[in-house]
Design brief:
- One of its GO terms (cellular component) is plasma membrane.
- The chain has 23 helices and 21 strands.
- The chain is an alpha/beta fold.
- Among the domains are: 95 residues, no CATH class; 174 residues; 272 residues, P-loop containing nucleotide triphosphate hydrolases (Rossmann fold), CATH 3.40.50.
- An eight-stranded mixed sheet has the order 14-21-20-15-19-16-18-17, sandwiched between helices.
- The N terminus is likely disordered.
């Protein structure tokens, strides 16, 4: 018998292992969107990193490329006045468009004339440019220079020459420049006159000077008129924008946006300055009148405010109407609370009468415990406990009186205990009733105070309204004068008799070159393309089972169900959890698996179920003990056998010893009755693996094993066997052949897709047509939903396996959210 089974086992091993040349089933064709989304979610941090690198490259390009900014404004020329001022003659209504275009062309030339340039040089001080040298680029320090240079011209020999300033400390610096091909350098102090061949210079500090300036490199250039004119001609653009509307566009390009804005605004201001001076005198007279009326109104308003403030201080109330509403609401709320207190007093009175009644002992129709739920908001946690104890002692006395006479010791002891508890309950009820009576008295006193206050409020409200009416009138008048002042000021500020600035110049926020949006778009597109490539590579290299769809496509075995992840507690080893959380998602999922098992073995009252996996760590022991517990909860007698004698875990799941078990039964050291261990579930027992033998495979082939199964069949409805992983050892293959329902465990995000080919080999080569699979430790993204009859309540976080502790903080939770 043993020899024949050894031959069968060797045949099974050869069939299970197979040869490398044996044809294997290919994975299902098509794109797995579920797996792709999972890979994309896990790759999201890397995609973000690649996008960040692309944007960083764009930023570096923009950082080391000098940007060019453009600031512009739009002017509208007034035909009736500008013609006479600028000497263009009279422009009638019937003039042709060409004549208007010629007039605007004259305006363009006027704006670019030396008249404008001289005013720009005088007001903006374009003659001296200050620069700071950087590692790669240099920038002009327009209006933010840490020092200024005043100069007196000696001759034209050093115009447009570079003067280098190197600060030694806050008061000393060296000035270097090139003269006749040789560098001249000398040390000077701040404010000291400096004699050079072309200038007498004086260097002074500005408000932007700081200790950090000492470490910088600076230089300045003194420009002559030709250089300034050339600079303005090159960068200033004046063009006719709309001949029909008589509008001109003025724009200026420069590396410094503020400088470009200032130049454009100064060009606009040249025409406006004289007319504005005349308008200012008229505006000043009007504003003086408005200010005088406004001062009078503010004085009267201040008096009204003082009267209202005095009323508020005297009556300690700013909003009498609101206070009236508040007091009325408070009285109503107090009445509700008072009724609740009266109900509590009534309840306590009834309880005292019930407890004091000596006739209740022995009556089954009197149950003091019925009043316990109503005492939940009393604030006394001891009272419900004593009432429950009193009720329990009554019931116990009733039961004893059915079996003993009242004169027996057992009855007298219980009567004494009941009397003591009764006395304690009476005292506690009286104490609570006294407290409630005091609260009612205090509430009545507060109600009287509120009602007295309520009677005085209408008179205060009438007085407050009388003071508020003149205050509101003066407030409206003051506001109207202030609005008139602002409106007049705005109107005068926008009035220009000769031309209007339709669009004033502003500091450009973005350069015209390089185009930042385009550069960043290229960097972003590059990062996205690399991120998509990374997702594609990781998807193609993905080799673990992540969802039920992959399990169904790559395996021909029937899927019994899906077990979600479990993170109620941290477990180093598999544990029985369904008895502690019978309504949890994992319990519901295993109940669904039990139902599917009933359909598969509906014709058999006695069943042998084996549970195995490919390698250790896929959760076969966890599934075995919890599925056995769920089956046992349906009033079936279940016994669990741990046949993983090399690495027993069933005893750990039940927190039991492993000193004897299957190994000692098979060597006839103990009987199976001696090795049976009970669990908290009455209909669930188990037999641990016992001490690890040197020959587990030979013990399984022992005829004693079949005898053991036969004995267990006579006493139990379901025999569940936790077998060794078939991918590591072959002990479980013969057991699977004996089983009515062999179950193969696949762990999501842990089991390799290649393991599914082993399932197909077992079915194809060994005829395991009843082989079923369970997807264990499945996360929400790895499951289809409710359409398969299994897997309730997805989303339990990390599983029962040994994993890192839950991440803390926003970054940790975000990382867990992305990776889950």
């Amino acid at each position: 018998m043993a020899a024949r089974e050894e031959v069968e086992l060797e045949e099974l091993i050869r069939n299970a292992g197979g040869s490398e040349a044996e044809s294997e089933e290919e994975e299902g064709p098509g794109l797995d969107l579920t797996t792709l989304l999972m890979v994309a979610r896990k790759s999201l941090p890397w995609v973000v990193l690649l996008i960040g690198l692309g944007l960083t490259a764009s930023w570096l390009f923009l950082r080391y490329t000098p940007p060019i900014y453009r600031s512009s404004s739009v002017l509208k020329i007034d035909e009736k006045t500008e013609a006479g001022v600028l000497g263009l003659g009279s422009i009638g209504e019937g003039m042709e468009q060409q004549q208007s275009l010629n007039k605007l062309s004259g305006e363009v030339e006027l704006i670019k004339s030396d008249l404008i340039y001289r005013r720009l040089k005088d007001s903006l001080m374009l003659d001296v440019n200050y620069y700071a040298e950087g590692t790669v680029l240099e920038r002009e320090l327009y209006r933010i220079s840490p020092f200024t240079v005043n100069y007196t011209k000696q001759n034209d020999s050093q115009f447009n020459t570079r003067f280098v300033v190197d600060f030694l400390d806050e008061n000393r610096f060296t000035l270097s420049y090139e003269l006749n091909g040789q560098e001249q350098s000398q040390e000077y102090t701040i404010g000291q006159p400096i004699q050079t061949p072309g200038f007498v210079l004086t260097v002074s500090k500005t408000d932007f000077f700081s200790p950090d300036v000492i470490d910088g490199n600076y230089y300045f250039i003194i420009n002559d008129s030709g250089a300034i004119n050339n600079y303005l001609n090159t960068n200033l653009s004046v063009a006719i924008e709309n001949p029909d509307a008589n509008t001109i566009n003025i724009s200026f390009t420069d590396k410094t946006p503020l400088k470009a804005q200032d130049i454009v605004n100064k060009v606009d201001t040249v025409y406006l300055i004289e007319k504005v001076l005349k308008k200012q005198e008229k505006a000043a007279r009007t504003l003086r009148y408005i200010d005088s009326e406004l001062e009078k109104s503010r004085a009267e308003l201040s008096k009204a405010e003082g009267a209202i403030q005095s009323f508020a201080e005297r009556n300690q109330a700013f909003d009498v109407k609101g206070e009236l509403t508040t007091v009325a609401s408070t009285i109503a709320d107090q009445e509700v609370e008072r009724r609740k207190l009266l109900e509590k007093v009534k309840l306590l009175t009834e309880l005292r009468n019930t407890v004091n009644n000596d006739q209740i002992v022995g009556r089954e129709d009197v149950d003091v415990a019925q009043a316990i739920p109503a005492l939940g908001d009393m604030g006394d946690s001891q009272l419900p406990q004593l009432l429950q104890q009193f009720n329990n002692q009554q019931l116990e006395l009733q039961q004893v009186l059915k079996s003993y006479k009242p004169t027996t010791t057992a009855v007298q002891l219980r009567q004494e205990a009941l009397a003591f508890t009764k006395k304690t309950v009476q005292e506690l009820l009286l104490q609570n009733q006294t407290v409630l009576q005091k609260q009612l008295a205090l509430m009545d006193q507060q109600r009287q105070q509120m009602e007295a206050k309520l009677q005085a409020l209408p008179q205060k409200f009438t007085e407050q309204e009388r003071l508020r009416r003149p205050f509101e009138a003066l407030e409206r008048n003051t506001g109207m004068l202030m609005e008139r002042k602002i409106s007049y000021g705005m109107a005068m500020a926008g009035t220009t008799p000769d031309f209007q600035i339709l669009s004033p110049a502003s500091a450009p926020a973005t350069p015209i070159s390089p185009v930042r949006a385009m550069v960043y778009a290229i960097g972003l597109a590059g990062g996205i393309v690399l991120g998509i490539g990374l997702i594609a590579v990781r998807y193609l290299m993905h080799n673990t089972v992540t969802n039920i769809g992959e399990l169904e496509r790559n395996s021909t075995a029937t899927v019994l169900g899906v077990i979600p992840t479990y993170d109620r507690e941290k477990m180093a080893v598999s544990k029985l959890v369904v008895d502690k959380n019978p309504k949890s998602a994992i319990s519901e999922a295993i109940r669904s698996i039990r139902t599917n098992l009933e359909f598969m073995a509906s014709s058999k009252k006695k069943r042998l179920i084996s549970v195995t996996s490919t390698i250790s760590g896929e959760g076969k022991t966890f599934v075995t003990v919890n599925l056995a517990a769920i089956i046992a909860s349906s009033e079936q007698r279940v016994v669990v056998l741990d046949l993983d004698m090399r690495k027993p875990k069933v005893n750990l799941a039940f927190d039991a010893p492993n000193v004897k078990g299957v190994s000692t039964i098979l060597i006839e050291r103990h009987t199976w009755e001696e090795c049976i261990q009970h669990t908290p579930i009455p209909t669930l027992d188990f037999i641990s693996a016992g001490p690890t033998p040197p020959n587990p495979s030979e013990l399984i082939l022992n005829p004693k094993f079949d005898e053991l199964l036969a004995e267990l069949y006579r006493h139990y409805d379901v025999v569940m066997i936790d077998t060794p992983p078939v991918g590591l050892v072959t002990d479980g293959i013969l057991i699977m052949r004996k089983a009515d329902v062999p179950i193969y465990i696949v762990r999501a995000n842990y089991s390799k897709k290649a393991f599914l080919k082993n399932i197909n080999k077992l079915i194809r080569a060994n005829g395991f047509t009843k082989l079923t699979t369970i997807l264990n430790d499945a996360k929400p993204n790895g499951m289809y939903g409710y359409g398969y009859g299994y897997g309730y309540g997805y989303g339990y976080g990390q599983g029962y396996y040994e994993e890192p502790t839950a991440p803390k903080g926003l970054v940790g939770r975000l990382r867990k959210r992305i990776s889950s």
